[in-house]
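Researcher: Before we compare anything, I want clean individual predictions. No alignment, no superposition, just each chain on its own. First chain goes here; please echo the sequence and then give the structure tokens.
Model: Echoing the first chain and its structure:
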Amino acid sequence: MLSYCEYLAIKKANPEEDCYIENLIYSISQCNEVICQWNGYELEKIFGIKPRNIKEICTEEQWDEIIKSVTESEFWKKNWNYPVWITKAFQQSAIDLVNIRGDFEDPSSPKMFEGERNIKSMLRDTYLGNLLERFIYKSRSQQYINKKNEVNRLFIKSSENLFTGQRLAFKYRGNRIEEIDQEIRSTFVFPALEDEKNLEMERIINNCNAVAIHARRGDMLGYNAPLYKFGYFKRAVRYIKAKVDDPVFIFFCDPGSVEWCRENERVFGLNFSKDKVLFTDWNKGEESFRDMQLMSFCKHAIITNSSFGWWGAFLNDNPNKITCSPNITINTTHHF
């Protein structure tokens, strides 16, 4: 969804040019462990989106050669250097594209899906280190927001044949998402709910001060672990309770984390016997997007480092919404 927003931005900046999406990575089974661990490419299935695809300008033979070349590159073993190897594959098939996303094999490029622990990460994984990090981010907030500024690349104007890749930057503050807000909201329209469980949850949400809690653990636990260990949820819940009358907290999380959340109320600053708390734990597999849909109905939201949760908060139309995230750079109303 974030990548599609970049497509919308480029179209807006270049109304006279032909713009295409590229999603060939979903055709490469070797990438499944990371890219396709969810449900594959779903924009057309869920939202009915059918943008022009670069595949349209290729012959069947050209496309087969492009897929073959990208697969043989094994870019996923080279710091996920898809920009270089995809553009090279197109060039070999006589489709000249200029790569403006960069070379991820360059020594100065950040490591993708880095799992190694270093001294900095180990310090961050302590109460004092986490406290210090939050203080630094708050005191230098504009500096960190500026680091995430990709406006010139997101709304790039050019008559060249460019391969822009994806930056996933619109969830960060300062990238002028408001300029495509209308297009986003008219595009990402969920299909109507039909099953009784979700319809009942929608009725509950519409009749209370519902607060979505997106407790993403699972594949993102390594990245989100400090949020559970050092009080992020407690701070966010405390703020919500101070500002919202009679809040009803509704948990949305990956199926494997539901029981953990039920057994760890104190991590969230909640008392399940006194606070009003509900769990949504039935939307799985190809119906997982329904959680995002229900989250968008809630009046407020507390999210983790997750684009799924961010979309649930962003698509919330409540003009007075409180949306909480753990990082000052994320485009939410509040940060803890």
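Researcher: Okay. Second chain, same rules.
Model: Second chain and its structure:
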Amino acid sequence: MDLNKYKNLTRGISDTYVNVHPIQRGGVLTAEARKALLEFGDGYSVCDYCFESRVDLVDKPPVHDFTGDVAEFLNMDDVRFTAGCRHAKWAVMHMVCEPGDTVVVDALAHYTSYLAAEANKLCIVEVPHNGYPMFEIDPQGYAVKFEEIEQKTGKLPSIAVLTHVDYRYGNIADAEKVGEICKEYGVPFLLNTAYSSGIMPVDGKKLHVDFLCGSGHKSWAASAPIGILATTYEWSTRVFNKSTCRGDWSGRGFSKKEVALFGCSPVFGAPVATLMASFPAVVERVKHWDKEVRNAQYFVNELEKIEGFHQMGVKPKQHPLMNFESLPLHEIAEKDKRRGYFLYHELKKRKIVGLHPGMSKNFKINTYGLKHEQIEYVANAFKDIARENGIKVEE
């Protein structure tokens, strides 16, 4: 066993690099969160003054107050923190559905939405998208599937899941319309906001949401793993149902512990501390969402000046997570000894990181939180790579 490889761990990049990783931009820690990371990095470090046996009820640091503030921020009624957005989705399905029930999901859903359903032994039915190049979800598709499921099984689905912003193309789905359809049919509505809440304005009640699941480490400038599960008073008691079991010999019971959260969500140290520390900045930054959209549209405009580059997904771009088709680069990569790693290495030479190694035919990128001059620098880097390899660039 070589233990030396675990010493002096580093990422291999410095602050001078521009990181455009599609899943990392919204999770970049604030300066306040980095301080909290050092202060609360030890396991269970927020539990020094835990008197109620649950992390969400801790008053020092003010986790209990924080749950109320996050609920207000999202315009929901009750909030818990979870071991990631995936845990939040699993918890809702576990408490709301029965094995064999049907869940309706959009065809752009994250794999964890499928696995959450599978783990709860649910039947999965997809609402399709309209394919290349838009990959758009039609809200009316939910009504169509509800009708089909009721006709086939004799009952409506137990829950409907919509990905607010999908992880592949960064399309913003019409959550309000889907919410209206769910209300009309009486189907509980779960909105996955892993790529929206925390970086853009999200109003749960305006969107007719019953369950809002978010990701602290994707979009709330927090350390991983931490998710957010917000719900309404109508569902709060059911989703956050407390334990009723009792040991047959010892008589032990755990009446304060919430079953779907494993009694107390495992976010005791750095995750919840950094989430709290970044919260004031998160509340402020969603007010400037229009600037992020303008930056994304600028970037798309610049990259589409390169011959053969096309932004996939809905246009004009409304979210900084984007996916480009780049067939000319792929043709070059096919002849380059680095093959698909050609683009990754060319960008890294220019101190740009975050593109998935091996991708050249298409790639995902995220400009969220970058300064305009950084976005301009990245766009110019792509143009330089194109010119160096004989690809035409519109001036």
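Researcher: What stands out in the second chain?
Model: The CA atoms of residues 49 and 262 lie 20 Å apart. Additionally, The two ends are 56 Å apart (CA to CA).
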